[in-house]
Automatic annotation (TrEMBL):
Residues 618-715 form the Subtilisin-like protease fibronectin type-III domain. This is Peptidase S8/S53 domain-containing protein. Residues 102-568 form the Peptidase S8/S53 domain. The active site is at D109, H176, S504. Residues 6-75 form the Inhibitor I9 domain. The lineage of its organism: Eukaryota, Viridiplantae, Streptophyta, Embryophyta, Tracheophyta. Belongs to the peptidase S8 family. InterPro entries: Peptidase_S8/S53_dom (IPR000209), Peptidase_S8/S53_dom_sf (IPR036852), Peptidase_S8_Ser-AS (IPR023828), Peptidase_S8_subtilisin-rel (IPR015500), Peptidases_S8_3 (IPR034197), S8pro/Inhibitor_I9 (IPR010259), S8pro/Inhibitor_I9_sf (IPR037045), SBT (IPR045051).
Length: 723
């Protein structure tokens, strides 16, 4: 129902009852049907009703949109060192921001394990007086579980089936929320490791920031409604940053995207919303949480891996294999493990000789006993079926590193390069009974190329508004070690850590950096923080988006160069983001006008659209995308100087292939009274037929010799002008 028109929360709820009563027939029926009354950051409600009632509601005055509450998916310490945030240095963004002191980060996820050492409040000052949240008591969770670090916790279970095995409280059962929270704002924990792997100092991006947790239940039948309520309360409570590692797949408009709608109202209230982009890669147009007011995050690799060596019986041949975690914790070998396999009916390594398909599914395993053995797979695998068959572990051989996986388990999982898989298969087919030794994995850092776009990370183009580039940025999201609940929930251990992978893990990295920027620049708007992060990706004078091999960021799936549909504006660079030089500022009113330009695809406010709209290409966004270039097109951008008052910036253009780019003016002069300047950039399609219907990529960078303010350019040419 859009923005609130009255401040009194009870009056807002009463208006919801009256609105629904006009459809259901009585206020008592309305009160019984309403699950959530959204009355803090905006006005709206979630209720049980049939399609006829919903249609009648949608026609009522004051109603912006009515939509079905959809299923939402969750998306999983060296990573902070990889990003250049060194806690031991005397200066830097960490130190200058006070480690994010007193910035309040709200995490909307599966809850929190409050006893984790990452959430201790030693030496932290009193809770900011502006905080209005609560520590909601529930199952195995009391007010004493909150402290000066974990300052608030709520849970939303209005439509969770009683049979669901989870705590009816903010306490985390499945690890996801604890992991993301500690990644964003966890305190320093020395000697942290995942079963002795990746040992070091575990910490979040903003260790002195405050944490507020908003728990939803993945099993809820009204999950989207729960998350909307969580965001509504977060606005009321007073968070500065919202971190949401979840989203709805296959959403093709904004007015039925509950997270987008609630996030808009959060931005209206000065809150930056950071959300994961989804794990449906490497396929195009799978990116979610694509609204321009959301900072959408993809996942990249880091320069650390866990490697083991497989040795064949003659000790003459060995190959390095990469150990990876699949939707669960890393599991390690504490000693060399013999791997037995035989031919015939007793399948040790799942045989994938010529003529067989290599599927490790329940149907293909067909009741085979795998107890004490490893299974080798090259195609789809059902983890639950493999565990049920008693397998000791899994070896995956897959040329491109992509295998459809279902189920969860805690078995060791290795990914072998195709050459290694060929060696194993060849040995398997020639030996009737033998042993393959897998030596204990080791933690290795400094490996490259890194960062690379993770295979699972969802890709652009933006399926709802193709003229808005998504993802916005990538951040570490592969094998990230952070706090989790102890394996035995009755354990008092405060040092339990595990590795997870996903855009769920990259999202809190960006949230942590955003908290540092908010602490450094408390007057910056959400769009200013977003711009600083986007325009300062990993760049050098020689080339942009460089990885640690000094080469362009690659795609883990294709093993070739990636592009902005994979990495957005690049890989996050916290140190540069602290001092971006220039920022692109976009207001909530700009976003509303943008929605007006989309018509029925985007209804987020009750007020009717006037003749004034703002096309996606004209939105003052830190990236430029033109999905349908016919002939020539000119777009305008406005930059705000947040660096040295007296400075001049010169435009550096990297033209997309087959596109001529002209910038006017190409030099911007700022002084103490001139802090905002605009420029126009014109794109002309050249007469090269092969470019038609394909995207080409480039960039515009404004530099004063110290700052490099880079905006990626993505252009799809659908016609050309005569040369």
């Amino acid at each position: 129902m859009g923005k609130k028109t009255v401040k009194d929360h009870e009056l807002v709820t009463k208006s919801h009852h009256e609105t629904l009563a006009s459809v259901l027939g009585s206020e008592d029926l309305a009160k019984g049907a309403i699950l959530y009354s959204y009355r803090h950051g905006f006005s709206g409600f979630a209720a049980d009703m049939n399609p006829r009632h919903a249609k009648a509601l949608s026609k009522m005055p004051g109603v912006v949109s009515v939509f079905h509450s959809k299923k939402v998916k969750l998306h999983t310490t060296h990573s902070w060192d990889f990003l250049g945030l060194d806690v031991m240095k005397p200066t830097g963004i960490l130190q200058e921001s006070g480690f994010g002191v007193d910035v309040i980060v709200g995490v909307v996820d599966s809850g929190v394990w409050p006893e984790a050492e990452s959430f201790n409040d030693k030496s932290m000052p009193a809770v900011p007086t502006r905080w209005k949240g609560i520590c909601q008591i529930g199952e195995n969770f009391t007010a004493s579980n909150c402290n000066r670090k974990l300052i608030g916790a709520r849970y939303f279970d209005q439509n969770v089936d009683p049979s669901v095995e989870d705590y009816r409280s903010p306490r985390d059962k499945d690890s996801h929320g604890t992991h993301t929270s500690s990644t964003a704002v966890g305190r320093l924990v020395y000697g942290a490791s995942d079963d002795e792997f990746g040992s070091g100092i575990a910490r979040g991006g903003a260790p002195m920031a405050r944490l507020a947790v908003y728990k939803f239940y993945e099993e809820s039948s009204s999950l989207e409604a729960d998350i909307i309520s969580a965001i509504d309360y977060a606005i009321y409570d007073g968070v500065d940053i919202l971190s949401i590692s979840a989203g709805v797949d296959n959403t093709y408009d904004y007015n039925t995207d509950g997270i987008a709608i609630a996030a808009f109202h959060a931005v209206q209230n000065g809150i930056l919303v950071v959300a994961s982009g989804g794990n449906s890669g490497p396929y195009p147009s799978t990116i979610i949480n694509t609204a321009p007011w959301i900072l959408s995050v993809g996942a990249g690799t880091i320069d650390r891996g866990f490697y083991a060596k497989i040795i064949l019986p003659d000790n003459a041949t060995s190959c390095q294999v990469c150990k990876m975690a699949v939707r669960t914790f890393l599991n390690v070998f504490r000693q060399a493990t013999p791997l037995q396999h035989r031919t015939g009916s007793e399948v040790g390594l799942h045989r994938i000789a010529s003529g067989e398909d290599g599927y490790c599914t329940e149907a293909r395993l067909n009741g085979t006993t795998l107890r004490g053995k490893y299974v080798l797979c090259i195609a789809s695998l059902d983890l639950d079926a493999i565990e049920k068959a008693g397998a000791t572990g899994i070896i995956i051989t897959d040329t491109a590193g992509l295998i459809p996986i279902t189920g969860t388990l805690s078995l060791p999982i290795f990914v072998v390069p195709s050459a290694c898989g060929v060696q194993l298969l060849g040995h398997r087919s020639h030996e009737r009974s033998s042993t393959i030794y897998i030596h204990p994995p080791e933690t290795v850092t400094g490996i490259g190329p890194a960062p690379a776009v993770a295979t699972f990370s969802s890709r652009g183009p933006n399926p709802i508004s193709p003229d808005i580039l998504k993802p916005d940025i990538i951040a570490p999201g592969v094998d990230i070690i952070a706090a989790i609940p102890p394996k035995s929930h009755s354990s008092s251990s405060a040092k339990s850590f595990g590795a997870m992978s996903g855009t769920s893990m990259s999202c809190p990295h960006v949230s942590g950096v955003a908290a540092l920027l908010k602490s450094l620049h408390p007057d910056w708007s959400p769009s200013a923080i977003k711009s600083a992060i986007m325009t300062t990706g990993i760049i050098t004078l020689a080339a942009w988006n460089m990885d640690n091999t000094r080469d362009i960021i690659t795609d883990s799936y294709t093993l070739s160069y990636s592009n902005p549909f994979g990495y957005g504006a690049g890989h996050i660079n916290p140190t540069k983001a602290a001092d971006p030089g220039l920022v692109y500022v976009t207001t909530p009113q700009d976003y509303a006008l943008f929605c007006c330009s989309l018509g029925s695809v985007c209804k987020i406010e009750h007020s009717k659209c006037s003749s004034q709209t703002l096309a996606a290409t004209e939105l003052n966004y830190p990236s430029i995308t033109i999905s349908n270039l016919v002939g020539a097109k000119t777009v305008k951008r406005v930059v705000t100087n947040v660096g040295t008052p007296y400075s001049s910036y010169r435009a550096i253009v990297e033209e997309p292939h087959s596109v001529r780019v002209t910038v006017k003016p190409d030099i911007l002069h700022f002084n103490s009274s001139v802090t905002k300047l605009s420029y126009e950039i014109t794109f002309e399609a050249a007469q090269i037929v092969r470019s038609v219907g394909h995207y080409a990529f480039g960039s515009i960078t404004w530099s004063d010799g110290v700052h490099y303010v880079r905006s990626p350019i993505s252009v799809q040419v659908n016609d050309f002008i005569r040369a």
